[in-house]
Amino acid sequence: MSYHGAVTPGGSPEVRELPHLVITKLSVGPLDNNAYFLRCPESGDELLVDAAAEADRLVATVGKGRLRTVVTTHRHPDHWGALAEVLATTGAESAAHPLDAAGIGAAVDRSVRDGETVAVGRAQLSVIHLPGHTPGSIALLYDDPQGTPHLFTGDSLFPGGPGRSTPETFPTLMDSLITKVFDRLPDETWVYPGHGNDTVLGNERAHIAEWIERGW
């Protein structure tokens, strides 16, 4: 069955197999957060994007792999509610942007900044700092050498627009999205948000002027 990216709390995960990375998406409650497991098929090493909730379910999803790293996309509690328990159970390293690290209620072992990379076995993810939703919000980019880019955006970009911000921080978020995402990545870039369904960058690009005009 082909990957479609639609998941529900308590439901089955969606799995997407790329040549050098396997992506498993599942929704965890109570706020329907997306958690993404990225696994290198050659080494078995895994990375989790946002240990949001349901630690037991997240740990079970690791399966026979080795969870090496948990990256928290931003400091809002619904994105790290299960982090401490997952870290304690798996011994994984915790990573986040330094501007949000103090607001994450579990250990942050590694600070990751714009332009740095995080390894998943032999695969590499690039960190993109997208301030605005929170000061230290980040996205992770996997630029598939044999296909399209894959972008894990946390709550910075969803189908239909950027994540929640204030009138003061919205211009910063939009500027970051335009210069670091839309101006750099092609329309076929697959977007994996922190909540809800996936999208592709081309579906969102045409609406940038609309987002700017409405102010959110």
Structure in words:
The chain has 216 residues and is of the alpha/beta class. It has a single domain (14-214), classed as 4-Layer Sandwich (Metallo-beta-lactamase, Chain A), CATH 3.60.15.10. Helix content is 21%, strand content 31%. It contains six helices and 15 strands. The strands form three sheets. A seven-stranded mixed beta sheet has the order 1-2-3-4-5-6-7. A hairpin with a 5-residue loop joins strand 3 and strand 4 (45-49). It is globular and about 50 Å long. The termini are far apart. The mean pLDDT is 97.
How many strands in all?
15
Give the number of domains: 1
Helix count, DSSP H or I runs of 4 or more residues = 6
Net shape = globular
Can you write the helix and strand succession as a string? Answer: EEEEHEHEHEEEEEEEHEEHH
Radius of gyration: 16 Å
- Going by helix content, strand content and strand pairing, the class is alpha/beta
Short recap of the structure:
The chain has 216 residues and is an alpha/beta fold. The protein has six helices and 15 strands.
Describe the protein's topology:
Layout: E1 14-17, E2 22-28, E3 33-39, E4 45-49, H1 55-62, E5 66-71, H2 83-90, E6 93-96, H3 98-101, E7 110-111, E8 117-120, E9 123-129, E10 138-143, E11 149-154, E12 157-158, E13 161-162, H4 170-182, E14 190-193, E15 199-200, H5 201-205, H6 208-214
Parallel strand pairs: 4-5, 5-6, 6-7, 11-14
Antiparallel strand pairs: 1-2, 2-3, 3-4, 8-9, 9-10, 10-11, 12-13, 14-15
